[in-house]
Each structure stands twice: as structure tokens, then as C-alpha cells.
Specification:
It is a single chain. With 225 residues, this protein is of the alpha+beta class. Helices cover 28% and strands 37% of the residues. The protein has six helices and ten strands. A hairpin with a 2-residue loop joins strand 2 and strand 3. It is rod-shaped, with a radius of gyration of 28 Å.
Length: 225
């Protein structure tokens, strides 16, 4: 039993020692295609090839290597966006050398050991967060609701009161599209609500991965005499 314990401990220590072997990118690229050792690489994110899957190039002073997928520090499945890795950040990753299609050397599903932010990291994250939502006159949907309230006119000959709800889409070009009544009060009030929403100046559209995307809103428009 004691011998088995010592053997098991030796194997665990061997794996731990092996996993802590830090090498340069150049050395990593030169390893044998049959090498199954776990290595640690440290470098700067040189280029993000696929932000959806976390494929990026890591560069140090000796060379550049493809990381085909990046997992979090405990080997979990958090998305690449949740990890908030950007070009220029410093990473230390752990993984094995693999070869794709007999020509591309990579580290597949690299496990993140350390993530150092670049000087522009936080500003870029803040900008991306702002771009996820459309902007109306440098404000948000509440700014648009206030604009609508200032421009509606109570229809002549109407005696109804209440809240009309209008659903609309801010298109990729920033224009208001596909307006419809989802809560009706009176035909005259409904028509006025649609008129004002449709007369909206253009918004700054939301963006995803740098590309404009459509956004749907439903807003209340209150009518009282």
C-alpha cells in the first residue's frame, strides 16, 4: 500500500511539474508532433481571428502561435466574450501542442492561467458595452420616450384617455421601422402615437462585433386631456 501511495504521489508530482513547464513560442512550435506534454506560454494577443470561438494569435519575442479556443482558469466553458480578452492583452495559457490538417501548429482549448489587461482594455470594453444598445440624441430609450411625449398632439374630436403602447424596430441604418400598436386605447390616439414614433429622427444603431444590428422596443405613450 505504501509503495502504491508513493507511486501515485510521484505520478501526480510529475504531472504538476510537467504542467508548469514554461517555454517560448518558438520552442513550442519546434516540438515534435507526437509530443503530449502540457506547456505554458506567455505573450500578447496579436490578433483575434474568431471572437465567437476564442481563436487568436499569441505573440512573444520569439514568434506567434494560434490558440484554437481559450477556456477560463478552471477549465470551464465561459464564453470568450465573458473572458473579455482583447487584442493587446497579455495572456499566460496552458495546453498541449496539436497540429491541424498536418500543417497548422496550435494550442487547442488553451486554459487561461493569467490575463493582464492592456492600457486601452477598459476603455474598449466600456465602448463596446455602449454600442450594444441604440442611442437616441446621445441618450437611451428613455430619452426617446421624453421626445415622443413632447411631440404628441391630442387629436381634435377625441375624448378618450389612456396609455397606448407602440412596438417598433431600430434598424441597422438607425431608422425606426415596423411600428405597430400592441396596446390600443382609441383609433385616433393610436394613429397619433404611430405618427409621432414614425417621425423619429434617426438613431445610432446598436452594434454587435462592430456590425449594426436591429433592436426592438415597446414604449408607452400617455394621452390625457
Amino acid at each position: 500500500m505504501k509503495k502504491l501511495f508513493v507511486l501515485a504521489l510521484s505520478l501526480l508530482l510529475g504531472v504538476a511539474t510537467q504542467a508548469q513547464e514554461r517555454i517560448s513560442v518558438k520552442s513550442f512550435l519546434k516540438k515534435s508532433d507526437t509530443d503530449t506534454t502540457t506547456y505554458i506560454l506567455r505573450g500578447v494577443v496579436d490578433y483575434i481571428r474568431n471572437p465567437s470561438n476564442g481563436n487568436l494569435y499569441l505573440k512573444d519575442r520569439t514568434g506567434r502561435v494560434l490558440l484554437y479556443g481559450v477556456r477560463d482558469t478552471v477549465g470551464g466553458t465561459r464564453s470568450f466574450y465573458q473572458l473579455q480578452i482583447l487584442q493587446g492583452d497579455t495572456l499566460e495559457v496552458m495546453g498541449k501542442r496539436t497540429v491541424y490538417n498536418q500543417q497548422t501548429i496550435e494550442m487547442k482549448n488553451a486554459r487561461l492561467v493569467y490575463h493582464g489587461k492592456s492600457r486601452t482594455h477598459d476603455a474598449t470594453i466600456a465602448q463596446r458595452a455602449a454600442e450594444r444598445h441604440p442611442s437616441f440624441k446621445n441618450g437611451d430609450v428613455e430619452t426617446f420616450i421624453a421626445w415622443v411625449a413632447a411631440h404628441v398632439k391630442y387629436p381634435a374630436g377625441c375624448s378618450a384617455e389612456g396609455t397606448v403602447k407602440v412596438k417598433f424596430v431600430v434598424g441597422r441604418d438607425g431608422g425606426v421601422q415596423e411600428t405597430e400598436i400592441v396596446q390600443s386605447v382609441d383609433p385616433l390616439l393610436d394613429a397619433e402615437a404611430l405618427r409621432v414614433v414614425r417621425s423619429s429622427p434617426k438613431w445610432r444603431p446598436a452594434k454587435l462585433n462592430g456590425n449594426p444590428v436591429r433592436t426592438t422596443y415597446t414604449i408607452p405613450i400617455i394621452f390625457s386631456r
